[in-house]
């Protein structure tokens, strides 16, 4: 895994209140990292420290092993949770302007802007003032603004807020394309179903501390219970009488159970002795279940 951004031991306080405590995690190129936590957990403060908007009280943030400076941060793209576009400028004019601030020539900035607006299904609103857009379209315009200079790192704070399901799918596809092209993407979201569908890696923060971080699939394995699902040819009620098995859910031929003792192979053999088995395997926890477990 090609780690590019490293947050190491970061602390931050506002007055007497410490909001970040020894925050450490990494972000890799070509991967989407979901950053989740409740309101006030420290996500936005961490992102602002990465972008240099805030300074850390302790700890370091490095890019490819080098301390961050203004030149490196110009290669980043940022979308804040608060809408920050000028309401009385047109979408096209505004994103071109922001591209120019990032060093693009006028023609290149316009070409990139139009390509992004087309990809984000916003081209028909290019000449509209931002204040005339719906909240969802304003959100897509902000995403275009963060992408226009083709950043190496995208830091997106609640990018799916205000988007309907079709718009979410559109933005997800765009972010996947950027990651596939080699960009590193760090995004926060309260929509855990979207995070679970989108992210390769996961960082969970609560009360200013990192509670879990790593590859999404590995975390699901790490926090998995000894829980299994089975589909058999006839009623599966016999499972409730099997030693070492606690039945969690039963719906005719389908059952979910916890294995308190013994082997899953023992259960499988018992099922096969009674007839055909159409499906059998472990049940992996959802992101929401992992989140609840680690923040308690």
TrEMBL record:
Q: Which PROSITE patterns match?
A: ABC_TRANSPORTER_1, ABC_TRANSPORTER_2
> Could you tell me which residue ranges the ABC transporter domain spans?
5-232
Q: Which SUPFAM superfamilies match?
A: P-loop containing nucleoside triphosphate hydrolases
Cellular location(s): Cell membrane
What GO biological process terms does the UniProt entry carry, in alphabetical order? response to antibiotic
Query: What Gene Ontology molecular-function terms does this entry list?
Result: ATP binding; ATP hydrolysis activity
Please state the protein's primary subcellular location: membrane
Q: Out of the domains of life, which is the source?
A: Bacteria
Keywords linked to the UniProt accession: Antibiotic resistance, ATP-binding, Nucleotide-binding, Transport
Q: How does it sit in the membrane?
A: Peripheral membrane protein
Which GO CC annotations does the UniProt entry carry? plasma membrane
Task: Show the stretches that span the lipid bilayer.
Answer: none
Which family is it part of? Belongs to the ABC transporter superfamily.
PANTHER family named among the record's database cross-references? ABC TRANSPORTER ATP-BINDING PROTEIN, ABC TRANSPORTER ATP-BINDING PROTEIN NATA
Full protein name: ABC transporter ATP-binding protein
Recorded source organism is Actinoplanes siamensis
